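Changelog note: in this version the structure field was regenerated for every chain. One regenerated record is shown below for reference.
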Amino acid sequence: MTISFYTRIFISISMIVLMSACGPGGASYPELDLMSHGLPIKINAPQDAEVAVDDLGIMKDVTVKGTDNYSVQIFSSEAESLDVAKLIAGLKSDIEASAFFSKIISEDESGFIYEKVIDEDFVNYDFRSVKIQGDTKYVFQAGFGGKYTQAEIEKIYNSIK
């Protein structure tokens, strides 16, 4: 799949406008403490964010949704390893093996952002990030079922660091 020259220009201009409107590092959200929802984790989320918790027995699924297409899903479970790099490598391998995986956009020591191409009209972005606290693993990703631009995913990814 190739992206037309005009589409690339439009995306580039949009990114520049978005980054300048948000200032350095993008707009920041206030801190949200998830302890009252059973997770000893703090993230940054929109002021109006709603939190939904689903206890699946061996795993807890916490979803934080707010304005600006903000949606983060956090899965907590017992860590099979305390090596974050190893856990991220496993997640990355699983993602790269999926049918719609296109490419890794960026990565750092706590996770990665990637592109999914369903077809030429449906390109979506997502991420995976891992935190370990004690013997518990927290895996962060974009909220299930959403459609996100690269800029939206980068903003959400940065909000969970």
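Spot check on this record: The CA atoms of residues 7 and 13 lie 10 Å apart. The chain has one domain: 30-159.
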